[in-house]
TrEMBL record:
Tagged with keyword Membrane: no
Single GO MF annotation: structural constituent of ribosome
Family: Belongs to the bacterial ribosomal protein bL9 family.
Gene Ontology CC: ribonucleoprotein complex; ribosome
Designated gene of the protein: rplI
The keyword Transmembrane is assigned to this record: no
Organism field: Propionibacterium acidifaciens F0233
Keywords of this entry: Ribonucleoprotein, Ribosomal protein, RNA-binding, rRNA-binding
Official protein name in the record: Large ribosomal subunit protein bL9
Function: Binds to the 23S rRNA.
Length: 149
């Protein structure tokens, strides 16, 4: 079965790759999970869009990663969150929340999997998060969790 991956699948490929898999694996896992779409002439046009989105988020090399690091360290990132009167959050701040806040603050589009809070963020205030752009470029970014308007 010929499929187009829409997300990264371990040991198979990344979004936008055209892969040949056994019928059962494609029908019973990849398609129901939304990890792939069936390859046909119309879907082949979607490959370009998927690959463009992937390239926008991809770090090209260590030099590019170092430039992104400088850009991120210059930002003031405020993450809005719903808060109880005691100052405790309803839920926790996740990597995807931080990625959206970085983009809104004028930073680059980051993949949520590159952002790891050092401990669960469940209170207002300043918190440190680990950002791993490449294996060689890792750093801590301080974010501020503020009440949502």
């Amino acid at each position: 079965m010929k499929l187009i991956l829409t997300t990264a699948v371990p040991h198979l490929g990344v979004a936008g790759d055209v892969v040949e898999v056994k019928d059962g694996y494609g029908r019973n896992y990849l398609l129901p999970q939304g990890c792939a779409i069936v390859h046909n002439r119309g879907a082949a046009k979607q490959i370009e869009g998927i690959q463009r989105a992937r390239n926008a988020r991809t770090i090209r090399d260590n030099e590019h990663a170092l430039r992104l690091r400088e850009q991120l360290e210059a930002l003031t990132v405020q993450v809005p969150a719903n808060v109880a009167s005691s100052g405790k959050l309803f839920g926790a701040v996740t990597g995807s929340d931080i990625a959206v806040a970085v983009k809104k603050a004028g930073g680059p589009a980051l993949d949520k999997r590159t952002i790891k809070p050092l401990k669960p963020i469940k209170r207002l205030g300043n918190h440190a998060v680990q950002i791993r752009l490449t294996d060689a470029v890792k750093f801590r970014l301080t974010i501020e969790v503020v009440p949502a308007a």
